[in-house]
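Second attempt. The first submission of Polysaccharide deacetylase family protein had a stray character pasted in from the spreadsheet, which I only caught after the job came back as garbage. Lesson logged: always re-copy from the clean sequence file. Corrected sequence (269 aa) follows.
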Amino acid sequence: MGEHAGRWGRRSLLRAAGLLTGGAAVGAAATTQTTWIADRRLPLAGGPASATLGSRQQDVGGGAVEVSWGVRTDERLVALTFDDGPLPQWTPMVLDTLDRYAVPATFFLVGARARQHAGLLRGRLDRHEVGNHSWAHHDLARLDAHGAYDDLRRSHDAIAAATGRAPRLLRPPWGHLGGAVLHAAARLDYRLVLWTLQMVEGEFPHDPAGHARRIVADVRPGTILLGHDVGTERRLVALRGLPDMITGLRARGYTFVTVSHLLGRAAQV
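This time the job returned cleanly.
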């Protein structure tokens, strides 16, 4: 009786192990299937992460998007850029300084603000260029392809109406990129522009000259420099130090150019 019990015990254990192994395989397959179904319900396919829209022909303008953080060049060129404007308390101060030193810059404008404050820009952008920085500075990387496109199209039209020129560059808020942003940028034939170096106002409270020295020391040929003409009080450190920044970089042999000019020079190298 003990012998038979031992034999049947071993047989039962082997059978149970087989069932467990088979069950694990089935369970793994079921888990994979469930995960795939769950992923399909997440905002991946057709959502913020997806750079495609549906299964039909993609309507994507020229069919490609280029993303630039800066350029590789031996020329001492730097592109000064300002985000988030225009606003009355800030933008005129920046434009006045740039006019005084005959410095071109690229302004990545928020469409709603451009429409509301179009008078701040009228007649003052001759040496400058404009880019799209979204309609209301919401995170485009959280929108699906339709939402990102609608936001940027609305902003595009407002900027064109306010400035008399259609933007050809896009800088998404906070530099957040998602597939939907890429898809929308392709549809609008935009070039995506991020930055090489950002002003660090928080590290130099009440010290515009110190902040300017830091930026002047950090710039390299082909740098795209990010500043803001909107924000909290601390950002005024950079704007008040802008004259020192300009004269300091010129003393190092740098020439200020728009982003498009910088990207064009890189293409010629």
